[in-house]
Structure formats: C-alpha cells, structure tokens
C-alpha cells in the first residue's frame, strides 16, 4: 500500500448506494481488528479467543474495500475495532486513506479508540488528515477504570487525550451510561469535558454478545433518566441537528456544551440510518442490531486485480439492508439481542 496509489473517481450519482428504504449509504465503519488491550466488561468476556491473524483482511485488502465504498459514494469513514490503534501498521492505512481526502471523495476520516495508544499516534493521525477522534471513557476514577476495562490505566488514556488535543485533534468522549457504575459521575464527566473543550456523547448499553440477561438489565441506565438528572443542574435546549446517525443533541445553556445521546433502546433511530459496518474479516453488517451479514472476503480474494465483483457484492448487500433493529428492554427482558460482541462488529 502506498500513498501514491491512484484515487478512485466516484461513480456516477445514479450508481451510488441507496438501500431498499431509500436511505443513501454514505458512512462506513470499518473494523480493522477484533483485538484490544482492554476487556471492557460490557464489550468482551474476560477470556477472549481472538481470530487467527490469517482470517483478518490485510491492510491492502482493507484499503481495497474502503476505496470501493468511497467510489460508491461513501464520504465518511470511521476506523474502529477492537482497538484500531493496536493493529500493526495501522498508521500506514490512515496515510493511504488520505488520498481520498485529498481528492475530495472522502469528507471525513476518523476513528473510535480507547485512547490507550493515542499519545503515540496523535501527531501521525493528524498528519494523515484525521481531524476528530472519539475516545471511549466511562469513568474518571482510576480504580473504577481498572475495574470496567479489566486491564486499562486511566492515566494513559488521559495522556492520550492530552496528546490528541495538543496535536490539534478535536476529541469527543463516548461514555456508556451504566447503572450503579458511573451514575454518580454524571456531573464530573460533564464538567471535565466543559473544562477541556471536549464534546460528549452518552450511550445506552446495548445487548451485544452473550452476557446473562440479568446482568444486561442490571446495567441498563436509560438516557431519559440521565437527561432528567442533567436537567436538575443545567438548562437543556434540544438541538435539531442530526448526523444521519443515532445521536440526538442538546445544548447545556450554562456551559454552551453540545451533548449527544445515543438511545438505541429507549429511542429508535433507524429511519435515518446512513451507515454500514464491516468486520476485520470482511463481513458486512448493514444493521448493528441484526445478525444478517454479507461476506466480502470471497469477491476480494478471488479477484485480486478486479474490484467489479467486490462492488457488485457491496450493492447486493445494501439491497438487503433491513429497516431497523429489534432491541427492546421493555417487559423486563432483553429482546432482539445479537449473538456478536461489540468488538467483533466494531462499535
Ligand atoms: N476500542 C475502541 C473503543 O473502545 O472506543 C473502539 C471499539 S469499541 C467496540 C466502540 C464503542 O462501543 C465504545 O465506545 C464502547 O464503549 C462501545 N460499546 C462496546 N460494547 C457496548 C455495548 N454493549 N453497549 C453500548 N456500547 C458499547
Ligand atoms: Fe476494547 Fe473498546 Fe471493547 Fe473496551 S469497548 S474492550 S476498549 S473494543
């Protein structure tokens, strides 16, 4: 993979990706590894068996897939995992993707990271054209952080965030709202973000993987409750802004902060879904909340020098994109649960 590889001309608009419900697909979340240096309790089991390396798409194959999507009109690419920054050679992948930013085909290149490696990578990511990063952080207490990530060090992540800010990257914290865990840190986290100039989005825990039902339900802290708590201290103004994604936004009038809320369970957001996700093995999931997928590895590997079959496979997959997910916690049971862990699909 080289930076001088030719950029792809976008296909004519009529050939762009439109799903059966007439939603244009313009956003690809690409998982580059299922591995991670953390084991967050809501994301992974303590003892994980990761995929053998040979099953993973190579960086060149990931480049071909990403480039094919961009050629079909995808204008936003988010790199995720597992932890994307633990994949060897990943900076080279970002550097290669820069050609699509330079050509104007790609509007945004970004990533979701646990922040542990950001101190090492921030400068390089910025040079590769990344402007914003999402960092997942659920607590500002070192002991809690060690507990929820099972092996992470809070200080390392805070250093990573500092390095990102210093490099000129905009940082957004993603905080999973977990009952009985970070409820009492709501204001602390909000104020930390206000002080440092970070954006903030709260996420409801989703029923991924095979955790026991009682544990899932016990962890669920509806964002409607969280927002009511915030409203005790701040004036919240709803913002009309939508990103084509699941987040809804509010402004805290006192601090001017914009806070995002991702509520897959207490609020359905599928009608405006513009995104698809690909795993590091080439499985394309057109809905995070459904188990149906299309395997892009065969067209990639059988036709190493011809991307036409790959593009056809992408189109065929988009034609199967379901209307939406079926997650439901009502009636005190977990419904619509998927069999995959989040690190498999990429968050
Ligand atoms: N390792 C990176 C990170 O943690 O940011 C990227 C991958 S991680 C799977 C992406 C996001 O998914 C993180 O913000 C994480 O908190 C979130 N996540 C993982 N499991 C989840 C679950 N069961 N419900 C809601 N969010 C979850
Ligand atoms: Fe790793 Fe991210 Fe999952 Fe935590 S949420 S275990 S950091 S992939």
Q: How would you describe this protein?
A:
This protein has 347 residues and is α/β, with parallel strands linked by helices. It has a single domain (8-345), classed as Aldolase class I (TIM Barrel, Alpha-Beta Barrel). The chain has helices at 59-71, 90-103, 118-127, 142-149, 154-166, 186-196, 213-219, 223-233, 297-302, 308-318, 342-345, and strands at residues 27-31, 76-80, 108-113, 132-136, 170-177, 199-204, 236-239, 247-252, 258-262, 275-278, 283-285, 293-295. The protein has a twelve-stranded mixed β-sheet with strand order 7-8-9-6-5-4-3-2-1-10-11-12. Helix 1 runs parallel beside helix 2 (90-103) and helix 3 packs parallel to helix 5 (154-166). Residues 36, 38-40, 43-44, 81-83, 114, 136, 342-343 line the site of iron/sulfur cluster (SF4). Iron/sulfur cluster binds next to helix 11.
Task: Write a concise synopsis of the structure shown.
With 347 residues, the protein is α/β, with parallel strands linked by helices. The protein has helices at 59-71, 90-103, 118-127, 142-149, 154-166, 186-196, 213-219, 223-233, 297-302, 308-318, 342-345; strands spanning 27-31, 76-80, 108-113, 132-136, 170-177, 199-204, 236-239, 247-252, 258-262, 275-278, 283-285, 293-295. The protein has one domain: Aldolase class I (TIM Barrel, Alpha-Beta Barrel).
């Amino acid at each position: 993979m080289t930076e001088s590889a030719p950029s792809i001309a976008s296909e004519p608009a009529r050939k762009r990706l439109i799903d059966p419900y007439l939603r244009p697909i313009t956003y690809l979340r690409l998982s580059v590894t299922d591995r991670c240096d953390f084991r967050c309790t809501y994301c992974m089991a303590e003892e994980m068996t990761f995929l053998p390396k040979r099953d993973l798409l190579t960086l060149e194959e990931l480049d071909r897939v990403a480039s094919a999507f961009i050629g079909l009109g995808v204008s936003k690419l988010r790199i995720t995992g597992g932890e994307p920054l633990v994949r060897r050679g990943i900076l080279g992948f970002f550097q290669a993707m820069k050609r699509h930013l330079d050509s104007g085909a790609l509007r945004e290149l970004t990533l979701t990271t646990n922040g542990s490696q950001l101190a090492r990578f921030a400068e390089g990511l910025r040079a590769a054209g990344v402007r914003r990063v999402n960092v997942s952080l659920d607590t500002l207490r070192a002991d809690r952080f060690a507990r929820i990530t099972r092996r992470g060090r809070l200080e390392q992540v805070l250093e990573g965030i500092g390095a990102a800010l210093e490099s000129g990257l905009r940082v957004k914290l993603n905080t999973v709202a977990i009952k009985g865990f970070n409820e009492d840190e709501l204001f602390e986290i909000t104020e930390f973000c206000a002080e440092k100039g970070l954006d903030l989005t709260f996420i409801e825990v989703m029923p991924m993987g095979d955790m026991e039902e009682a544990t899932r339900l016990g962890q669920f802290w509806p964002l409607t409750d969280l927002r009511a708590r915030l409203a005790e201290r701040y004036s919240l103004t709803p913002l009309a802004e939508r990103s084509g994604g699941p987040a809804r936004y509010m402004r805290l009038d006192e601090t001017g902060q914009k806070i995002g809320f991702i509520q897959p369970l207490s609020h359905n957001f599928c009608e405006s879904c513009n995104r698809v996700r690909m795993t590091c093995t080439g499985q394309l999931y057109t809905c995070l909340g459904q188990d149906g997928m299309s395997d892009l590895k065969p067209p990639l590997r059988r036709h190493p020098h011809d991307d036409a079959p790959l593009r056809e496979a992408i189109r065929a997959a988009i034609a199967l994109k379901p209307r939406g997910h079926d997650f439901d916690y009502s009636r005190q049971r977990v419904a619509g649960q998927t069999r995959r862990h989040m690190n498999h699909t990429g968050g």
